[in-house]
From TrEMBL:
It comes from Parahalioglobus pacificus. InterPro entries: 26kDa_periplasmic_antigen, SIMPL/DUF541. Coiled coil: none annotated. Transmembrane segments: none annotated. This is DUF541 domain-containing protein. One of its GO terms (biological process) is DNA damage response. It comes from the Bacteria. Residues 1-20 are annotated as: Disordered.
Amino acid sequence: MTSLVTVAEEQPQPSVSVSGSADLRLAPDMARVSMTASHRADSVAAAQQVVAETVNSVLKIAQDLGVEKTHINTTSASASPRYRWNEKEERQQLVGYEVSRDITIELLDLAKLGTLLEQAGEAGVSGMSPPVLDASEREAVHRQALKLAFANAQANAEVLAAAAGADLGRAQSITSSGSRPPAVPRMRAAAMEMADASAKSFNAADLTVRAQVSVIFALDY
């Protein structure tokens, strides 16, 4: 005699997939400033001397403003020949050398940013990028934003569950679209000429920290 045993297949639990987001704002309290000292001369040595003088002036400015050496980077440097086309001889003619050195300063006191930029411009830096702002509490604020983003996703799921005539169950899966906040905005300057800027011409806009999550919730019928 043969016995047949039928095993019912377990049905997957119904679920709903939702997303949530949250934005928080915070005031910046630090900045990263990148600038370049460069000079052209007949020889590499002559160009290096001028660049070194400029870099040393900027280093003294930063140190006088209380910036620690560990927050200053001047290791990137380059030297390249410069040519000019000689129409008479129909060939490139060496006319000198250009030496450049990059300077990056992390300023932890935002109130000194205007002074740093102004004095660095007066010291003879040849290029200066707009400062990039940051905040020491950015990671902590991002974690707060993650909590709010999950709450937003849960609220969206509750609406959908109610519309489907179900009760919202536990979260089965949680995914964050990014572990860090988006890139922070640059400093807004009233004057683009850094060498002529005064300490009062800079206005630090608030930073926006965004968190986004995707969550799958179980549905109970």
